[in-house]
Amino acid sequence: MFETMVIAAALGASLSTAAVETPPPASVPAATAPDAGNPDPWEPTNRSLFRLNKGLDRAVIRPGASFYHHAVTHPIRDGVHNVLYNLGEPVTFLNNVLQARPTQAGKTVLRFVVNSTVGIAGVFDVTGANGLPREPSGFAETLTRYGAPQGPYIFLPVFGPSSVRDLTGRAVDVVSDPFTWINYSGRTGAQAARGVLAGADQRVRLDPVLKDVDRTATDPYATLRSAFLQSSSLTGHRETDVKALPDFGPEPGTPAPTAPPPPRP
Question: Which of 122, 105, 106, 102 is nearest to 114 (CA)?
């Protein structure tokens, strides 16, 4: 879920600075094999799937999300969003462990326990309101941490932009989610409702950004691809705090700064 929000942030940043990619040539040669220098070797197929997704979005997805937006009040939608996020905390905890991040794993457990109890099954983000913000993680981030290459860019209808690494991560996240394989009464219906609500929640939250892309981008496909690749290039989908980086000193060959002359008497 968090990948789409990162993409939205990257899209918003790119649009606000008018950083829209130039459209591709009229005829794009089909790639026969992935090229390390080309993140989108399957571009002709991806563009076809992108157009298919646009049709599905106009006919089904956006109208359904619009109905959800107008039929459900904002506080209830926020509660649904919080519950959906809370249900993903076990997967975040597992990946924190796999990434050897014990502090983050402990925070995730604390968030899940407090929000599931005091927050009434996660309806209220109690920990977020008290200085313990959400820090989502998935298996794609775990693969990134251990140096797995991103692989070719892929666009899938309904699911949106992805890559070989991120698709693998999503699949592992689904399998490792305890709510997927634990047997309980009404599991099939609950999982279906969770998927539909998650899709509607994401589409409602992305709607303003996607409208801006359609209105301002010369090539919406290239803009969305650029936003995804930008977000995936961040280590673990988290931006690096430049101020927190160590000072490695001047570049080799850079003259050392001279001390200012003493003041005249």
Answer: 122
